[in-house]
Amino acid sequence: MSSEIYKPGSYPNLPPPPGTVGVYGWIKNNLFSSISNSTLTIISVVLIYYLIDGIIGWFFFDAVFDANSKIECRKINDGACWAVITRRVGQFVYGFYPEVERWRIDISFLTMFIAFAPLLYPDLPKRKWLLWFSGIYPFFAFILINGGYFGLTKIEYSLFGGFMLTVIIGVTGIVCSLPIGIFLALGRQSKLTVVRTLSVCFIEFMRGVPLITLLFVASSMLNYFMPPGTNFSILVRVIIMFTFFSAAYIAEVIRGGIQAIPKGQYEAADALGMNYWQTTRFITLPQALKISIPGIMNTFIGLYKDTTLVVVIGLLDPLGIGRAALADTKWNGLSTETYLFVALFFFVSCFAMSRYSLWLENKLNTDHK
Amino acid sequence: MTFLYNIWHNEKSREIIIQIFVLLCIGWFLSWLISNVDANFKALGKDISFEFLFIPAGYDINQYLIDYNNRDSHLRAGIVGLLNTGLVAVFGIILATILGVTLGIIRLSKNWLASRIAYWYIEFTRNVPILLHILLWHGIIINTLPHSKNAINIADISFLSNRGFYIPKPLTENGIELVYLLLVIGIIFSVLFFKHAKKKQDLTGLQLPVFWINLSVIISLPVIGFFVSGLPISLEIPVLKGFNFKGGMHMSPELAALTFALGIYTAAFIAEIVRAGILAVDKGQREAAESIGLKPSKVMKLVILPQARRVIIPPLTSQYLNLTKNSSLAIAIGYMDLVATLGGISLNQTGREMETMVIVMLIYLSVSLSISAFMNWYNNKVKLVGR
Amino acid sequence: MSNNVIIAAVVAGAVGIGAGYALFSGQPTQTVEKETVTSAPSGAGTLDEVRARGSLNCIINTGLAGFAAPDDQGKWTGFDVDFCRAVAAATLGDADKVNYTTATGKTRFTKLAAGEGEILSRNTTWTFSRDVDLSQTFVGVSYYDGQGFMVPKSLGVTSAKGLDGASVCIQTGTTTELNLAEFFASNNMKYNPVPIETNSEAQELYKAGRCDVYTTDASGLYATMSSFDNPSDHMVLPEIVSKEPLGPVVRHGDDQWADIVAWTLKAMMAGEELNITSSNVKSLAGKDNKNKEINRLLGKDPLQGVSKLGLSPDWAVQVISQVGNYAEVFEKNLGMSTPLKIARGANQLSRDGGLFYIPPIK
């Protein structure tokens, strides 16, 4: 009977009740739906007001962007003195890399995106060709940055610094730790007692000690473990430590992924007559890696942030460059500006990485939830 | 030939061969490392000895939970540092948990503005390195709080300045034993009452206000004892003498900065964990709970949280462990923890990198491992049975 | 989709192994091959190694005004830096051929021992245990220092004996902690230490009033004071509680190299004594001087040992013309014309009442 009464088109379309749509409706629903909700909104508004009032002025409107020294800054205006950054932006980015050679860093950095693009975006056109470039990129970047071949001047590692150092340690550590992490995870799940025990020991040791102690080891003790006379640069030692450290974390993330694979998958693989490596290659890893992508990305972001710790052993990452700038009598006492600038840099790059990870997670999510 | 072939193609024997091979490789590698250390140490004229632990440290430590002065041994300095690590870890964990759970819940709030603020707060906090957090917080605390001469005076007994927060220290006098006794009785009572109430609920379904009754008993009994035995506690009030406040209890700005930085940084991660945990509870659970007429607070307490807890606890512990390990960055602002005392000044003064770092690493390792072991046990306990 | 993940993982793995290979294989061919022979932590041949590389590796402070700090152009300047430059001038003939490696107080000796630099020029105090236990060679004193205390004048303290109960900011990784503990203990005073890793950090704390007193080497105190907005509001207390002879350090075992570094320092001081400056050194080197010591130093009548050391006869000319004599270097980096305004004090020639007594160049 009702089908006749509500026949489509026989009644005019009424507007929704007032106060449920439009700006007013949205505000009412989302901000003032109840007394507690309204209180929360008011508190939030007050908080935002104070934040903007107190900080934005200092940050932008009263800030000085160019001056010769802190004293000059203070004479011009009483906000932030960003001159310490603008005057040393080259140092913050390239460290002490010679100015005439800095194009090499620029090129390596830009081509890094091309090298990573096919790895990061599975749908890219011409992906196969780009993958070849990704394969040779490490050698390309190493030769370009380090020099020593093809008439490029050799640049000493001690001149590396600033954001460039962060990116070098971070990216090399990230890229090297993934394969090691995968093997460690497989080792931990292995049937072979010896392999399993060794993997467990390595993983638990790396995860159990603070990174800063590992860096002390890298800076002051690693040479004792090498044959007398060997000498490899502090930068390489630090990268090794970072790689091992994050490999242990990645191994745990991937182990979680492996354990989440239903038992039936292995049974099916066995039924098909696959051997261990075939199972790993076609059954275990594709599924385990997909599940663990968010965790892997989080580990990478963590590693990237942790690169600031190298300042404790005297390498000049952005924080170290900032501190060296503060040691200059001209800029002494501008620590807030310096630290905030470095913090902003890390925020931007880490936030971008976490956004990418979210995107990938959604893309790979083929479940029908 | 066929014999070898058989050995290799028999699963059992092949496993054994591979394992022996791996063991040999590792053994060779380790002995190589040790022989290198030996050769290097000989070349430098060094040896490995732990005797330095028992010679006087010679330096002072600004915060000690057990008695310490510069004539005590390096070992004792290390223990003082370890206790300081423990202290800041406990403070940080408490702050991180409270803040993180609050943020996680606000993040799920229906209020758009509050949820957005929480979101951006979390993103800003967790995408900035912890070392910067520590440095910034320390800078804020020492630059915004007044000098000790103009300390903020709270009711004439507590003082807040950039030298730290001074509060009165309770000193016990004769008769305090009664208060302790009553406290113990209160606790025993509340445990028994809790069991009784649970039994009653199981039998009749009737719920007693256990929490409030227990709380009032635990508080009121010692308070009564306190008055009966004639106020056996006096307060040592900090006073400004010379350069600093003397007496009372004291929280240094370094401890405060470290607590804030570690707490706030870790809270951002905990908030996400809590959020994910709550979201992981099936929607149907909430709907079912609401449909049988439970109040929203009861839905949260009795249905959502117990299930979310299973998801939340494992990553939460690893955050606690991270916080503890991150506290080693205390060295950047002069809070003297284990890495700053034994792994820092002691290392410097004695030149024994190998020994001090081995001790420091072993200590962190054993703390981590024992907590993981506990967590594995707990996980097995709360794990869903079946499947 | 899963196939893509696999490809991505495999390629990432290849990239990783490749990068690792590049770092390991590229690096050793660059340095280790040469250095396995030469830069064994205690081996000889440091000079050859420096010459082969064409540059000197020098370990310096991460940042201390007047001693080592990068300017806006990224060039390191300072007293310690100039000494590195002097050694480069003596050995390579070019003061600019120096690679600077920074080290904190804690990592400096291990960096030197590990062969990351040929010289440690990082205001390092010469002590018995550092010289003997750590297998270093201190080649001389370039700066006589002592640990002092800086206080704000408003504190109303005129002597370090009046610091009972004070909060003291200390720079760690140095001899400072022990000196401080000894001083306060011997005067029956109590204090509250705040140990800080770097000078700039410690400075911030002192300025914010976290500490009543800042203690480090007196030179560092003056350097710090000079950077304040109102340096006249602060003072360095008269008590100097320790002896801190600072100087360059080299590894044990290469006496030739130790001699080169030691005599570079002495040549700079001799330059001051003989009134050879960067402006007149070229003209003095060209002619026969009445003072035969000048002739011997500047290579007119070169001493036999110079070639034995492996230096060219004009090594001292290079040092003084490119870097300057001791007085010039001091004035340029620390002296009255700089914001630091440090008086020469003990750091003068003995003839002027200081502690530098230069062995004759004979």
Provide structural commentary:
- The complex is a heterotrimer of chains A (369), B (387) and C (362).
- Chain A is mostly helical and 369 residues long.
- Chain A is built from 16 helices and no strands.
- Chain A folds into 2 domains: 46 residues, no CATH class; 224 residues, MetI-like fold (Orthogonal Bundle), CATH 1.10.3720.10.
- The model of chain A has no long low-confidence stretch (mean pLDDT 82).
- Chain B has 387 residues and is α+β, with helices and mostly antiparallel strands.
- Chain B folds into 3 domains: 42 residues; 241 residues, Orthogonal Bundle (MetI-like fold); 68 residues.
- Chain B is built from 12 helices and 8 strands.
- Chain B is globular.
- The model of chain B has no long low-confidence stretch (mean pLDDT 84).
- Chain C is α/β, with parallel strands linked by helices and 362 residues long.
- In chain C, 43% of the residues lie in helices and 17% in strands.
- The N terminus of chain C is likely disordered.
- Chains in contact: A-B, A-C, B-C.
- Chains A and C meet through helix 7, helix 8, helix 9, helix 11 and helix 12 of A and helix 1, strand 2, strand 4, helix 4 and helix 7 of C.
Which key phrases capture this entry?
heterotrimer; A: 369 residues; mainly alpha; MetI-like fold; 0% strand; globular; B: 387 residues; alpha+beta; 3 domains; four-stranded antiparallel β-sheet; two-stranded antiparallel sheet
Largest sheet descriptor of chain B: 4 strands, antiparallel
- Biggest sheet of chain C, open or closed, and with what strands and sense? 6 strands, mixed
Uncertain runs of chain C with pLDDT below 50, 5 residues or more? 1-12, 14-43
% residues in beta strands of chain B: 5-15%
What layout of secondary structure does this protein have?
The complex is a heterotrimer of chains A (369), B (387) and C (362).
Chain A: H1 2-5, H2 22-30, H3 35-61, H4 70-76, H5 83-86, H6 89-94, H7 102-120, H8 127-146, H9 162-188, H10 193-208, H11 211-221, H12 234-259, H13 263-271, H14 276-306, H15 318-327, H16 335-364
Chain B: H1 2-9, H2 11-44, H3 74-107, H4 112-126, H5 130-144, E1 152-154, E2 158-161, E3 164-167, E4 169-172, H6 176-204, H7 210-228, E5 233-236, E6 239-241, E7 244-246, E8 249-251, H8 253-280, H9 283-291, H10 296-326, H11 338-350, H12 353-382
Antiparallel strand pairs in B: 1-2, 2-3, 3-8, 4-5, 6-7
Helix pairs in contact in B: 3-4, 3-8, 3-11, 4-8, 5-8, 6-7, 8-10, 9-10, 10-12, 11-12
Chain C: H1 2-38, H2 46-53, E1 56-61, E2 69-70, E3 76-77, H3 79-92, E4 98-103, H4 108-113, E5 119-125, H5 128-132, E6 136-138, E7 143-145, E8 147-152, E9 166-171, H6 176-186, E10 191-196, H7 199-208, E11 213-217, H8 218-226, E12 234-236, E13 244-251, H9 255-273, H10 281-286, H11 292-298, H12 304-309, H13 315-322, H14 326-333
Helix pairs in contact in C: 3-9, 3-13
